[in-house]
Write a structure and sequence with these properties.
mainly alpha, transmembrane, YiaAB, YiaAB two helix domain-containing protein, transmembrane helix
Length: about 100
């Protein structure tokens, strides 16, 4: 009755584009901080801030992905329950007989 929804997969080109974009933006940020006319402690603060930003971005992406996957699983379970109820229902059955 129910066909399992195909899991969408990212293409290799999309994965490569995302990885390259991340690498270039991170390298450009580090390069920019390294060549700013700042003291060492100011430069260190910016580097720590950049690293914290990157790590929190990865954490946020994982949380969003996990929430999406759990809601999809819950939806599929509810859908399976409804299909079971509809399959067991007999509209021609007389109640109490």
């Amino acid at each position: 009755m129910s066909t399992a929804a195909a899991q969408p997969k990212s293409s290799g080109a999309f994965l490569a584009q995302a990885a390259i974009a991340f690498g270039i933006s991170f390298a450009a940020s580090v390069f920019g901080v390294a060549y700013l006319p700042l003291d060492i402690w100011q430069r260190g603060f910016l580097i720590i801030t950049l690293l914290f930003l990157v790590s929190s971005t990865f954490t946020l992406a994982k949380v969003v992905r996990d929430q999406h996957e759990s809601s999809r699983v819950t939806h599929r379970i509810d859908e399976a329950r409804m299909e079971k109820l509809m399959a067991e229902h007999d509209p021609f059955r007389v109640p109490g007989v």
